[in-house]
Amino acid sequence: MSRRVIRNTGTGAGPANFYPTTPQFSGQCERILLLLLRRKGQWIPTSEFAAIAQQHNSRIFSLRRAGYTIENKIETINGKRVGFYRLIATPDEFLNPQPMLPLEARI
User: Which positions ≥6 away from 49 have C-beta within 8 Å?
Assistant: First the structure.
């Protein structure tokens, strides 16, 4: 019995096409991207990325080159330095920015 894998091509509508113009990734890079998207805006420790990919720095570099805005920081916890990453924006957010509300509506 053969398995057929269907990849999101970036066309159509629906949850699979939520980021229609972003490049397609596979393997470790895809798993890191999915983790970042699920927890967008939250700081994620590097230990979680290391469980997905030993070369997570390289995969995050690839995502940044593809237009994802990913921040990183280092904190000292119990005398040990711990790194964190978080996703700030996707390439689509720059292509389809949300209109800003008037100042009066934001207050």
Answer: 32, 35, 56, 59, 60, 85
